[in-house]
Amino acid sequence: MARRRITLIAMGLALGLAACSPASNANDSVSLETARAEHEAGRAVLIDIREPAEHATGVAQKAQLLPMRQLGARFSEIPTDPSKPVLLICNTQNRSSATLEALREKGYKHVRYVQGGMSEWARRGWPMTKPDAH
Description:
The structure is a single chain. The chain is of the alpha/beta class. It is built from five helices and five strands; from the N terminus they run αβαβαββαβα.
């Protein structure tokens, strides 16, 4: 009986917390395949928000490098034209999805995060370059 009560309480708490968290929207993310295709075709701006030490392991060619820690001081570098989507990529999508929320609060409606991140990009063997070479 006590175990069932604990389970019910835990389920109630989980549902309550889910209701309080921001709703995930289908427009919040883009698949890795779509991100690569849109970036390489010049239809979207890919912004790599990983830190410089992570960039050193390799970046997508022509990606804009804007470490998350520097974002506050470098907002002006994020394109504001809604006709050119901005795709945020980090290592696994945790930081890019959090950064998306911060940018949406600042009025950036044309920004999405990339599912899977650069770890999945690298795992697939997709082209990468050193930051100073791109």
